[in-house]
Amino acid sequence: GDSVTQMEGPVTLSEEAFLTINCTYTATGYPSLFWYVQYPGEGLQLLLKATKADDKGSNKGFEATYRKETTSFHLEKGSVQVSDSAVYFCALSKGNQGGKLIFGQGTELSVKP
Amino acid sequence: NAGVTQTPKFRVLKTGQSMTLLCAQDMNHEYMYWYRQDPGMGLRLIHYSVGEGTTAKGEVPDGYNVSRLKKQNFLLGLESAAPSQTSVYFCASGRQSPYGYTFGSGTRLTVV
Question: Which residues of chain A have pLDDT under 50?
Answer without folding.
Answer: none
